Structures are given as structure tokens and as C-alpha cells.
């Protein structure tokens, strides 16, 4: 998407939100189930009891821990939801066994963030054939028949958002040096983020001059950043794909004594947002990859089992797929996003 077109789209969306907020029929926030969504709607009224099984990978990463925590909190808002959470695991065979148990227990729905989407597809298909509503989160199954609905982040959109922000900051500085610290290069999500970033930069005549890959960990982030800083004597902007590995990236920057560039984070951790708000470090923005996906999966599972629709849609069924937006968080809007941020 060309740079000017991207900026115009963002401006139009912002204007739309502003106009919506000013209309007289915007409902006022109320108490009750739908707190994180802003207002209480008819769908939040208690209905048929829904037993939901929840399974996700091990919480060995701040974002992943937040996924499960948000799902638990969301289920706790509804008196008609019973949530059964199994221990997070990075073993596909153990996760398959967990889903088999849910099937044998005849739960009403399963919200599943698979460690490996392909490996979990057959058991998800089995659950669907047994009449259990499956909501797929973040990592997609191989078959469209394995889930009633899928909740996704937008990895390509993260790159576009980060690149657009960098273009806005450097639009009067042609020839600026842009660097990138990616995650695990073999993963499609990393490839999508880098592709979106490169294409957004191309729209304003910039490109990535220095790039290294890390492993979504603090240690790998520090190591990759140290190598990058040594190889690049001058940088104007740096995008780091992941705020967890960004803890290490920030440490390496501090150790280097470098301060000539600004940094854009990725995923949306609370510690990075606090730094953005304080304006006392290299981070001037971060791009959100929502850790609310599991919570959204809980809501969709409840609505699907109770034969309800999404309150703000005319359609009488829940969507087949929901892809969440990747907004840029800056000092100007950080207070809006801090409440749902995860801790690195």
C-alpha cells in the first residue's frame, strides 16, 4: 500500500472513530459483563450455561501468559460460562490429549491456541464432528472445517503499521538508515511482519538497511541488537518485532551508549508503553499484536453455543474469521491501550 494512501486510510479511520464518539446515540458504559469492550449489550445477559475448554501453549513468554490470563478473566465476567483450563504445553501430543479429554467430557466449546496448527487439526476436526464448537486462536488449522471461527492477529499489518509510523517520522529525512530486529526467521509470522514493514517503507522511498533476527527471547534480543549496533555505525530508526525480546534489545542499546535513533516495538507490552508514556527511552511507539485473542475466543464460543450474534453486526451468526487490528501506540494514545497490555 503506498505511503500516502496508508496515511489517508489511517486518518479516515481516526476521523470515523472521532465522529462515532460524538454521536448522540453512543451508549454510555454500564456495569456488567462487557467491561473491556466498553458497553454492556443484550448479548451479555445470562443465558444457557456454556462449558468451555481452553488450551494454549506454555506461558514462557509475556504475550502467551497474557493470552491465558485474559481468557480466564473474560470467562469470569459471565455467570453462564464454566471455563476449564488445562496446563499450557509446547508438546503437540500432550495438547492433543488435552483436547481428547475435552471431547470425552462433552464440553460445549473448545477455545484452542495450538502450539502447532497442523498437528492439532485432526483432533479439532474430531471435536467439530462431535458437535463441539471449536474456536481457533492465533495459529490456524490446516482445514477450514476444524473450527467454527478463527481469531487472528495481523502480522503483515504489524509491519505495515510500523513502517508507516517510521515513514511519518522520517518523511523529511531522505536517505535515512532504517534497521530491523526480527523474530524467528523461519516462522511465517516473522516473514509476514518483515514483508509488511518493507512494503510500507518503500511507499516513502526508504528500505531496511540493516537487519538481524532473534528468537523472541530477552537473551536473543540482546545478542542480536549488540551485533546490529556493531555493524551499523549510524541508525535513524529501529523496528523490533517483539517487546519481550525488546527487553534485551533495550539493554544492548543502553550498554552501547547510542541515542541517535528512535525505536518502534512490537506486540504491545506494558513496560514498553510505560516507557513511551514517560518519554525517557528509545521507544517512541509500539505496534500491537493483541493478547486479547484468547478472551475474544471465549466470547465467540459463548455466543456461538447460545446461538447469538455479535452485538454490533447485522449478521445473525458470528463471523467465520476475526482478524484484529495492529494499531500504533504512541505517547498521544498510550493511555487507551495500557489497560490491556501484557507484562514482559
Automatic annotation (TrEMBL):
Domain Periplasmic binding protein: start-end pairs: 52-308
GO molecular function annotations of the record: carbohydrate binding
Annotated signal peptide: 1-23
GO CC list: cell envelope
UniProtKB keywords: Signal
Subcellular location: Cell envelope
Entry-linked PANTHER family: D-ALLOSE-BINDING PERIPLASMIC PROTEIN-RELATED
Family: Belongs to the bacterial solute-binding protein 2 family.
Protein name: Monosaccharide ABC transporter substrate-binding protein, CUT2 family
Amino acid at each position: 500500500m503506498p505511503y500516502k494512501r496508508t496515511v489517508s486510510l489511517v486518518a479516515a479511520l481516526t476521523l470515523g472513530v472521532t465522529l462515532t464518539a460524538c454521536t448522540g446515540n453512543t451508549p454510555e458504559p454500564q456495569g456488567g459483563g462487557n467491561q473491556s469492550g466498553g458497553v454492556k449489550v443484550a448479548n451479555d445477559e445470562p443465558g444457557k450455561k456454556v462449558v468451555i475448554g481452553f488450551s494454549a501453549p506454555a506461558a514462557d513468554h509475556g504475550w502467551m501468559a497474557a493470552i491465558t490470563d485474559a481468557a480466564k478473566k473474560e470467562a469470569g465476567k459471565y455467570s453462564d460460562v464454566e471455563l476449564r483450563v488445562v496446563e499450557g504445553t509446547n508438546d503437540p501430543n500432550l495438547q492433543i490429549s488435552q483436547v481428547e479429554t475435552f471431547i470425552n467430557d462433552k464440553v460445549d466449546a473448545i477455545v484452542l491456541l495450538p502450539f502447532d496448527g497442523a498437528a492439532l487439526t485432526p483432533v479439532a476436526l474430531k471435536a467439530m464432528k462431535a458437535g463441539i464448537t471449536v474456536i481457533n486462536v492465533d495459529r490456524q488449522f490446516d482445514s477450514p472445517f476444524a473450527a467454527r471461527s478463527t481469531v487472528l492477529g495481523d502480522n503483515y499489518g504489524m509491519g505495515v503499521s510500523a513502517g508507516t509510523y517510521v515513514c511519518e517520522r522520517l518523511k523529511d529525512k531522505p536517505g535515512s538508515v532504517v534497521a530491523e530486529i526480527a523474530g524467528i526467521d523461519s516462522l511465517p509470522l516473522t516473514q509476514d511482519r518483515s514483508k509488511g514493514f518493507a512494503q510500507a517503507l518503500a511507499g516513502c522511498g526508504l528500505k531496511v538497511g540493516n537487519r538481524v533476527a532473534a528468537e523472541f527471547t530477552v537473551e536473543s534480543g540482546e545478542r542480536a541488537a549488540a551485533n546490529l549496533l556493531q555493524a551499523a555505525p549510524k541508525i535513524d530508526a529501529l523496528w523490533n518485532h517483539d517487546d519481550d525480546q525488546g527487553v534485551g534489545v533495550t539493554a544492548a542499546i543502553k550498554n552501547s551508549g547510542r541515542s541517535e535513533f528512535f525505536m518502534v516495538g512490537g506486540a504491545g507490552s506494558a513496560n514498553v508503553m510505560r516507557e513511551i508514556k514517560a518519554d525517557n527511552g528509545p521507544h517512541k511507539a509500539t505496534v500491537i499484536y493483541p493478547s486479547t485473542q484468547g478472551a475474544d475466543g471465549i466470547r465467540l464460543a459463548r455466543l456461538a453455543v447460545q446461538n447469538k450474534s455479535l452485538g454490533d453486526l447485522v449478521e445473525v451468526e458470528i463471523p467465520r474469521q476475526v482478524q484484529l487490528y495492529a494499531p500504533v501506540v504512541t505517547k498521544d494514545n498510550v493511555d487507551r491501550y495500557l489497560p490491556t497490555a501484557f507484562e514482559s
